[in-house]
Amino acid sequence: MVTNERDIRQQLVREAAHRMMVAARTAPKGKGIDIVEIGMATDEDIARLSEEMKRIAAETGLKFFLRDAENILQADAIVLIGTGAQTQGLNCAHCGYATCAAKPEAVPCAINSVDVGIAIGSACAMASDMRVDTRVMFSAGLAAQQLHFLGEKAKCVMAIPVSASSKNPFFDRKPHEAK
Known about the structure:
Elements: H1 5-26, E1 36-41, H2 43-60, H3 64-71, E2 77-83, H4 110-130, E3 133-134, H5 138-146, E4 155-163
Antiparallel strand pairs: 1-2, 2-4, 3-4
Helix pairs in contact: 1-4, 2-3, 2-5
């Protein structure tokens, strides 16, 4: 039996996305406290994400949301990485406040944001090892956060659309005009 790569590509991309999720989970966390949230959107959830991005574009006037909304429709999966909000008690002042107690609740703990960044780096390294196409997107992450794809407490959500094609569809992107 001969299996054509085209017939199993979507399955292989989703398997790569699963490995990216594991890489994000096993990434180092500040103080060893794991409050990182990780998920994967596929099929109709990618379409919902795209629609939410278009809504955000209309609301904010940020046209790159329109471009990215069309762009993610070329993904077979989108890995989502965010964090809960939990002050780590280090009084490091990286958030701009001298102590954790002085930090307003609305201001994110910098260590939480760093944890998301490290998890994204680990996920993207795995994607590279698996030779799949990706791009980290703030726009799709914000839409996923507003749709509560990782739960209502997830903050600082970033999205990594994943594809396998002859050319990465997430680069050399053309801007879209608002309609």
